[in-house]
Please model this.
Amino acid sequence: MRYISSLALLAPLVSARPPFKGVFLEKNSDLLPSYDYVVVGAGAAGLTVANRLSEDAATTVLVIEAGVFDKNEDYVTIPGLAGGAVGTVYDWNTTYAATESVANRAISIPQGRVVGGSTKLNRMVFDRGSRSDYDRWETLGNTGWGWDSLLPYFKKNEKYTPPNEYMVSEYNATFDASAHGSDGYMHVSYAPFVWPTTKTFIDAVKEVGISISEDQANGNALGGFYCPHNQDPTTETRSSAREAYWNTVETRTNLHLITGQQVTRVLTSAKNNAVCVTGVEYAPAKDQPTSSVKVNKEAILAAGAIFTPQILQVSGIGDPAHLSSINVSTVVDLPAVGHNFHDHVLLTTVNSINAPLVQSNLTSNATFAAESLELFKSQQAGPYTDPTAAFLVFLPLNNFTTEAATIHEQAVSQDPAAFLPSDTPAESLKGYQAQHDLLNAKIITPESAVLEYIWADGAVVVGLEHPYSRGSVKAASASTFDAPIADAGFLTNPLDLAILVEGVKYMRTLMKTNALATFQPFEVLPGANVTSDEDLGNFIRQSASTLFHPAGSCMLGAREEGGVVDSELKVYGINGLRVVDASMMPLLPASHTMTTVYAVAEKAADIIKGI
Ligand SMILES: *[C@@H]1O[C@H](CO)[C@@H](O)[C@H](O)[C@H]1NC(C)=O
Ligand SMILES: *[C@@H]1O[C@H](CO)[C@@H](O)[C@H](O)[C@H]1NC(C)=O
Ligand SMILES: *[C@@H]1O[C@H](CO)[C@@H](O)[C@H](O)[C@H]1NC(C)=O
Ligand SMILES: *[C@@H]1O[C@H](CO)[C@@H](O)[C@H](O)[C@H]1NC(C)=O
Ligand SMILES: *[C@@H]1O[C@H](CO)[C@@H](O)[C@H](O)[C@H]1NC(C)=O
Ligand SMILES: *[C@@H]1O[C@H](CO)[C@@H](O)[C@H](O)[C@H]1NC(C)=O
Ligand SMILES: *[C@@H]1O[C@H](CO)[C@@H](O)[C@H](O)[C@H]1NC(C)=O
Model:
């Protein structure tokens, strides 16, 4: 029988355990009247910063989270069910605006609304980008944000377990001990099971001459590599921001967390020409009265690249024209808020294959699924330990297409302004021009990956790692209870489409290897009849989705170049306000973003503490 790998979500299997309660405040009236730091959002960034700031017992920290605690449902904890919390009560159910460049489809962009944030929803890929990805942040003028400055924080976050016996004996997995940390809060390890077709894919990768990296963590995340996950090596369950940074410090009485409260505004005052933060306002629901808490030192926005700019805008920090259109008075004239928004494009291609053991056996064979679940629960072994994506491939342009020189030529002759949103402010345009030059310089170099391939039993996910396209995030009204208009600008720049077209062709090269031919692959998507660049382009516009890495909407950079935060992540024009989440990234790294968000947050905590 032929199998088509399904990327569809597996049915949730709920086993209720009591929710965790530490210094978790159930009622508004339990809050102190003021806190030194108020952190907005209990995701990867927010919980990391809150944990580190509260190491000093004399410092009071409050985290405000709109969602609730999960109940350790199987679909949250078991790696083989990862992604199962998408579309549940733990998800904001956000979508990108439907635009012509993606055939007018509203692409869903899950965002965690739960303690732990999107680290409870995702597929647990725990990788870093390459040195070149972070060094370009520094090249853009952001001193202290290159690879060498971030590496200590990547390490600080980790409690790393090297490849286990299975990964070494079956896959020859290697690692570079010097790139890892062992004292951090976050479990990082390799699953004791990998779906067997992965081995054949690795053979195909070697057959076409792609190199295998010793370790993605040491600044060389290029070629193929074994990818660790945020997974506890003893229980084999997910290690999310909640398990790592909250559960471990539950006894700290100076760290408070309130759930079920959505931040509605940052409160500010203007004295002697200086604007400063005075408090944070929140409410449990749109029609409920708001409450507020005073901020002694700082408010820290960690609500993610979609909600952080929205909160700034409804608080009067943004583009005066946009703010007046939503009936918000301008407090700080900072037009770049919400601009430079971008995300990795995900494209799913599918081949049906003949193979004896594939992921979809879990969904098609109830006996096998039940046995596998029992194996997971009794021995922490078997298919459910694998969150998938055990082996990833990241390729420079020259390594997957002979059209690299042509694409580079198109890039350097392109007017950077030509494909930006029409309301891009002058400072954001200036910043983008510098980014465009840098993207052009890097696109033909061997140390910069522009494409990612993820193998899943014949399905090959193609990821666009350094998009040229930009969109924006805009509050739709003065209320944070109305979803912001988020547009990642997918495929608005034709360079992104051209790169993906070449990416699909190279997927076919991989499928034609002797190694993969043993599966007798049959191309289902896009389909063997889709061959011309135009037809491939249409397929891509009609099926492109997100790799779930929204970023860049409150970028780190000079104010006159579209920066919203300075090199200490302080928002320009206001005292006592920082942004610590993926919003700050000027350019996405060629990597899944969770690991980088942790490193950024660990570094931010030291900056705030003055270390
Ligand atoms: C997201 O959708 C799920 C399923 O319909 C629902 O239970 C949940 O409340 C929604 N989330 C929000 C924030 O509305
Ligand atoms: C591991 O290394 C051995 C010896 O070099 C080789 O025969 C085998 O194919 C390798 N396996 C993988 C999965 O790379
Ligand atoms: C890209 O191709 C070059 C030249 O063939 C090769 O040396 C290099 O290892 C390849 N890079 C990767 C990541 O496979
Ligand atoms: C702004 O206020 C006006 C007048 O009250 C109202 O008609 C309009 O709908 C408001 N706009 C938004 C986006 O809330
Ligand atoms: C898994 O699926 C393959 C392909 O259909 C089939 O040959 C095999 O018997 C299945 N194995 C199990 C355990 O269900
Ligand atoms: C389903 O799984 C069971 C247990 O692994 C296996 O014995 C059986 O052959 C599988 N059925 C099919 C149709 O592959
Ligand atoms: C390819 O074939 C499919 C199925 O017959 C058809 O729906 C599709 O329109 C064809 N695409 C092109 C570009 O010919």
